[in-house]
Amino acid sequence: MIYLFSMKLILKIHLIVVIFFCLASCTDKIVPDVNGHAIGMSAGIASTRVTEADIDDLRSSGFSVYGGYLGDDPTKVFDGDLVSTTNGIDWTYTNTKYWSFNTYNFYAVHPTTADVSYNASTGEFKIINHNIMDNQDLDLLIAKTENHEYPDDGSVVNMNFTHAFVQVSFQAKKDAGAGTGDPVKIESVSLYGVPSSGTYSSKSDTWTYSSVTTEDSPFVQGSDITLETTPKDIFGGAQLMLPAQYIPNTYILKVKHTEDNYPVVMYLSSASLHQWEPGKKYTYTFTIIDKDLIIFDPPKVTPWTESNGNVIIVE
User: Fold this and answer.
1) Does 68 map to a domain?
2) Do 218 and 147 share a domain, yes or no?
3) Cis peptide upstream of residue 243 (ω within 30 degrees of 0)
């Protein structure tokens, strides 16, 4: 009887020890030991040719960060949290978040006024129905760090920003032999067929347009422009921001000038360039030769080289 009791006691002890070690082992696998490591943020411009002046706007007003972790239980961690800096080096936010043993997606946008959503279940980040037409001089910067594993050392997440848009300008000049009498003038000019609003998705990394400008409601227009033999900006130096994308045959520049009784329609897609790349400036120039001929030169492509209003420069 004593022997049987001892055997039962030994078996119980062994069972308790096995359960204890199993629980300890399983706990080590599923419960993160974050060691108090907060999720830190830093910001920069994805470029090798950036001066201090180029990111002043980003530093002065900060950026909004979105994202969370994926897996069987996807969870939103950041939802438009403002990340800012007071010294241009250290970036901080309120309501500190901490790392767990998960894989994360992080997204950020500047300026912080953009209407943005992040869906934790799908991991999709969107800039929603951005009004391109009413914000023609507003540059958008987007940053993303995807499939980011939690760091053992608690290191920060570096958000490298890139341009969402291109900068487009239009110039005109007269040929030296044009307009032997009265000055050559552009009576009216308009750009239309380009998007007026759209939504950006991180899943496709493209824009989907919800509305497009028309001939009756153009993206931009000008009038009464006297031309010289040197190029002149026909929209008064406006910095026109448009999404970087393939150039469709619906982007139209319509010009009415004194050398011709009828307007001339020019398609941007016919100007020997078919793709706009983010962070580039495209200058389209045309020359009025006579009443029957306008020459549309190949666009000049340059990096943005100086700050102008809401434009953040990236070379």
Assistant:
1) yes
2) no
3) no
What distances in angstroms separate CA 315 from CA 223, 247, 312, one per listed residue?
Answer: 33, 22, 10
Q: Could you tell me which residues come within 8 angstroms of residue 6 by beta carbon, excluding any fewer than 6 positions away? A: none
Q: Give backbone dihedrals phi and psi of 298, rounded to 5 degrees, phi first.
A: -60, 140
| C-beta neighbour count of 116 within 10 angstroms | 21
Angstrom distances, CA of residue 161 to CA of 58, 155, 176? 10, 19, 45
Domain identity same for 125 and 186: no
Amino acid at the residue 1: M
Over the stretch 220-268, which tens digit does the pLDDT of each residue have?
999 999 998 899 999 998 889 999 889 999 999 999 987 777 888 999 9
Q: Is residue 23 part of a domain?
A: no
The pTM score is: 0.78
What are the beta bridge partners of residue 128? none
User: Domain limits at 228?
Assistant: 165-303
CA distance 262 to 264: 7
